[in-house]
Fold this protein.
Amino acid sequence: MNALEKKEGSGSVIPAHSIICRFIGPFLSIVQKWDSQLSLVSEVIEEWMSTQRKWLYLEGIFVGGDIRVQLPEEAKKFDNIDKAYRKIMADTAKRLNVVDCCTISGRLEEFVNLGLGLQKCQKSLNDYLDTKRRIFPRFFFISTDELLSILGSSECSCVQEHMIKMFDNIKALELYVDHTNRPVAAKMISAEGEIMEFRNVVYTEGRVEDWMNLVLQEMRRTNRYITKKATFWYGRNWHIPRTEWILEYQGMVCLAANGIWWTGETEESFLRIAKGNKRAMKEHLEQQNEQLSGLVVKVRQDLSPNDRLKFRTITTIDVHARDIIEGFVRDNITKAQEFQWESQLRFYWLKKEDNLWIRQCTGSFEYGYEYMGLNGRLVITPLTDRIYLTITQALTMQLGGAPAGPAGTGKTETTKDLAKALGLLCVVTNCGEGMDFLAVGQILAGLCQCGAWGCFDEFNRIDISVLSVISTQLQCIRSALLMKLKRFTFEGQEIDMDTKVGIFITMNPGYAGRTELPESVKALFRPVVCILPDLEMICQISLFSDGFLTAKLLESNFQNNPIMIGGLRALTAVLRMAGKLRRASPGLSEMMVLMRALR
Ligand SMILES: Nc1ncnc2c1ncn2[C@@H]1O[C@H](COP(=O)(O)OP(=O)(O)O)[C@@H](O)[C@H]1O
Ligand SMILES: [Mg+2]
C-alpha cells in the first residue's frame, strides 16, 4: 500500500500537465477519462489507507484479546467490518491492477462506510476506557495501550509492570492465592525492595479497577496505622535507642513520626521558655545533636543497603531540623508565633481528626499516606525552603507554583520533594512541542480525581496556541477548588475533585525555542526563581549523611574544583561515588576517598 501511494503520487502529475497542453485536442476525451479515473483511484487509495490504519489498530485489540469478553457488542460489529475488509483484500490479491481494483463501482463508498464503522468501534472503545479511568483514576497516568493490556488480561499480575507509573516508586504487589483459594494482594514492594505489608490483605477478585481501588485504600489505611504506631512508640520506648526504633519501621513512616516529634518537642521548648526556663531551647539543641551523632555512628557501621538508605535520608532531614533549632538558639527565638517557626514545615498529629496534618504559615495540609519506599529526600537548603514556602502559600490560594531557572537547579526535584514530605503522589510530565491540550487535559483530569500533584516540566515548550486552551482547563479546576466542589465538569465530563490536587510548572525562561507564557496562565501560578542551588551545603550534608565526619574541612578545596562548575547533577554523581568508595576502602582517609571520587 505504501509503495502504491508513492507511485500514485507521481502518476497524477502527467494528466494535470497534459490537460493544459495546447496539442491536446485529439486526445482530449482519453485524457479526461484517465484524469477522472486517476483522481478516483487517488481518492479510493486515501480512504483505503486510513481504513487500513484504523483496522490494523483495532484488529490488534479485538481479535484474540480478552477485550472481546468486555465489549461483546463492539467485537461483533468489528467482526463484520473485519470480514468485509478481508474480503476486499482477498479480492485485490487476485487482481493486482491498481486501476481495476479502485474503480470497481461502489468501492469508494465501501471504504467510507468501513471507516465510519471502525471509527464507531474506536469511540466505544474510548468510552469504555474512560469509564474504567473514572473508576480508578490512576489509569489516567498510563497509556491507552498499557491500559488495554491490563483490561485485556484475566491475570491479576498484569498490573505489576505498570505499578511504577501509577504509584510512586512502587515496583510490585505481592500477589498469591490464599488457603481458601482466593487471590490476594498482601504487600507493596518498593523499587529498592522495601516492603509494606498490608494490615488486611486485599482480595484481587472481580474487575481490576475495583480491586485496584481497594489496594489504594488499603495502602493508605496501613500507612496511616503504621505511622500512628511508630509515633506512639517513639515516645514510649525510652529503653530502646532511637536508632533501633528506626530499624523497625519503613523509611517514610520514620520521617513522618520524626517530624511529629520534632515539632512537638520544639513547641514544648517554647512553652518551657515561657515558663521561665531560659535554657530550654539549648537543651533541645543538645538533644538534637545527640540524636544526630547516634545516626552517624549507625551510618558508619555495617548496614544492609536499604537500611543505609533509610538512615541517610533521616540524617539529611535531621540535619535541617537541628540547624533550625541552632538558629533559634543563636537568634534568640523564644515564641512559637515568630515567623522563623511559623514558616517551617511542621507536622502535627491532630487528636480531633485523629490524623496527621502538616502546616506551614497559613497553609494546612492533610498527609496523603502514599507509600513510596525509600525514594530519598533532598538536602533542605534555603532555596528548598523558599520553594516549599512559595508552593504551600500558593496552594492555600488555590494557585499553582512555577519554579523557574536554569537546568539542574532542582526545580523538579524540590517540587517532588515537598510532595514526598506531604505523602502525596507527584506525577512528572515532560512537556514538548508535540503536547496537545487533550493529553494535558487527561493528566489534569487524573490529578484532580486522584488528589495527586502534577509537575509539568519545561512547560513553556508547549505551543502558545495550546497553552491558551490549557489555561481554560486550569481555570476550570481552580474555580472548582475555590467553590469547594466535590464534583465538577471538566472538558465536558463530570468528575470527582480531590482537594489535595496541586499543579506545578517548571520553566527555563529565555532558553532557545521557549515561549513566553500568556498572562492568563501566568496569573494561575506563583513564580519562584531558582538560579543558584547551594552546592556547598548540599555537598556537605550529603557527605555527612554518608558518614563523612570531616567533610566540613574540605570546603575550601571543594570550591575551586571543576565539579562545582559541572552543576548539581554531576555533583550528586560524585557524592554517590564517594559514599561507595568509603565503604569499599575503610582504611583510607576521607580526604583521599574524596579525591578518588572526583577523579
Ligand atoms: N537540595 C538538593 N539536595 C540534593 N540534591 C539536589 C537538590 N536540589 C537538586 N538536587 C539534585 O540536582 C539534580 C537536578 O535537579 P532537577 O530538579 O532535575 O533540576 P531542574 O528540574 O531544575 O532541571 C537532581 O539529581 C537532584 O537530585
Ligand atoms: Mg526539571
Summary: Confidence is low (pLDDT under 50) at residues 9-13. The chain is about 60% helix and 10% strand. Residues 535-598 form one domain.
